[in-house]
Specification:
It is a single chain. With about 120 residues, the chain is an alpha+beta fold. The chain has one domain. Helices cover about 35% and strands about 20% of the residues. It is built from 3 helices and 4 strands; from the N terminus they run H-E-E-H-H-E-E. It has a 4-stranded antiparallel sheet with strand order 2-1-4-3, with helices on one face. The longest helix has 21 residues. The protein binds zinc ion (ZN). Zinc ion binds next to helix 1.
Length: about 120
């Protein structure tokens, strides 16, 4: 057997550079939830969720929180008022999604992208 022992996975494959098929099957799916202005990195760490239900709730929370932030402000511009309504509609829409719309659930409101991506853990 070639390679260093610590690179050999339980299936006898050298997993240093690649992940063997069996190992890949064992990696869990993780839903990443976050938001960012397109072209810019997110200012927050994406939230990791194990299920679509959790990820959906998290995304809806972000949308509603941002809508509430706008609602709390004085003297909303017409744009901000539109964004507030769009955030609210998007939250209601996403709440009705029983299944994750693979490979990504993305909604854009007020120039900000809100998303859930499905990725493999690790
Ligand atoms: Zn393996």
């Amino acid at each position: 057997m070639k390679g260093e022992p610590w690179n050999i996975c339980p299936h006898g494959v050298d997993c240093f550079m690649t992940v063997c098929e069996e190992c890949d099957k064992e990696r869990k799916d993780v839903y990443l939830v976050g938001f960012n202005v397109p072209g810019y990195l997110p200012t927050m760490e994406p939230v990791e969720c194990e299920t679509w239900e959790d990820a959906r709730a998290c995304l809806v929370d972000y949308l509603r929180a941002h809508a509430n932030d706008l609602a709390d402000g004085d003297d909303l511009t017409a744009n901000e008022a539109d964004t507030m309504v769009a955030l609210d509609y998007a939250a209601n829409d996403i709440e009705t999604l029983q299944k994750f719309p693979e490979p990504s659930c993305v909604v854009t409101c007020g120039g900000v992208e809100y998303w859930v991506h499905l990725e493999k853990e690790g």
